[in-house]
Design goal:
Number of helices: 5
Subcellular location: Cytoplasm
Order of helices and strands: EHEHEEHEEEEEEHEEEEEEEH
EC number: 2.7.1.23
Distance between the termini: 41 Å
Helix content: 10-25%
CATH superfamily of the largest domain: Probable inorganic polyphosphate/atp-NAD kinase, domain 2
Largest sheet: 11 strands, antiparallel
Cofactor: a divalent metal cation
Structural class: alpha+beta
Main location: cytoplasm
CATH topology of the largest domain: Tumour Suppressor Smad4
CATH class of the largest domain: Mainly Beta
Catalytic activity: NAD(+) + ATP = ADP + NADP(+) + H(+)
Length: 263
């Protein structure tokens, strides 16, 4: 990246398989030299929010995180910056504003006793597997808060994920620096007046499935699903902090505020 005064000397390039992202990747490769993700100091991601989430999950699975600068060549691009062409990338990286993101860690025990652990950047959700209403006991920090939630399910969202599935389930939008989590029911039937809660992000949440044989429930950490669950424990994975890079005028915290005034 000679001549661009880059903040990061070694960059990796990740892109979606869309035609727009492929063309942009070719354009960038013609101008800059990229290294493998293992060698990189930062990663450039081309695509939409799905591509960004895939990139972040790849790092989580590998146990090594690096700053990620996303360029939107997808649809929504809430987690991305605008793509203005290949020129000036080093300057944009030098001026980029870092935003810390803490994922959730989900520990699941199935009805058969198997255990699984996955991380979620957006949310962990419990969803009924059949037409039968799910019934879930909800505990926070070891105390049962709702003995039985009846409905389609329940989700726990990070601030980054609060504008995704959480928002569509009528959950609150959380500022990125709020240090809070959104606990949001999905199509609740009982308790009728409960619409969710906002919890400190140091909270430890447990979901226990009532009548699991009759009313099977799946647990999903972003896109990773475990079926026929019996119990789910969730807490913030503070050892897996990640960094997203944004152009100064497109910082994620401003987007979250702006989203609350969208009509």
């Amino acid at each position: 990246m000679a001549g661009d005064n880059p903040k990061f000397q070694k960059l990796a390039l990740v892109h979606s398989q869309s035609d727009r992202a492929r063309r942009a990747a070719d354009e960038l490769r013609s101008r800059y030299d990229f290294v493998s993700e293992d060698e990189a100091e930062a990663i450039i991601t081309l695509g939409g929010d799905g591509t960004m989430l895939d990139t972040l999950h790849t790092m989580l699975d590998g146990g090594k995180t690096r700053p990620v600068f996303g360029l939107n060549l997808g649809t929504v691009g809430f987690l991305m910056n605008r793509y203005h062409g290949a020129s000036g990338l080093g300057q944009r990286l030098s001026e980029a504003k870092p935003m810390s993101v803490l994922p959730l860690r989900m520990h699941v025990t199935t009805q058969s006793g198997e255990t699984h652990t996955y991380c979620a950047i957006n949310e962990v959700s419990l969803l009924r597997e059949t037409r039968q209403t799910a019934k879930v006991e909800i505990s926070v920090n070891g105390r049962v808060r709702i003995p039985e939630l009846a409905g389609d399910g329940i989700l726990l969202s990070t601030p980054v994920g609060s504008t995704a599935y959480n928002l569509s389930a009528n959950g609150p939008i959380l500022p990125l620096d709020s240090n809070m989590l959104a606990l949001t029911p999905i199509s609740p039937f009982r308790p009728r007046r409960w619409r969710g809660a906002i919890l400190p992000d140091r909270s430890k949440v447990r979901f226990r499935v009532n009548e699991p044989a009759k009313r099977p429930v799946a647990a999903v950490a972003d896109s990773k699903e475990v079926r026929d669950v019996a119990e789910v424990h969730i807490e913030v994975a503070r050892d897996m902090e990640m960094t997203l890079l944004f152009d100064p005028h497109q910082a994620l915290d401003e987007r979250i505020v702006a989203e609350q005034f969208a009509v």
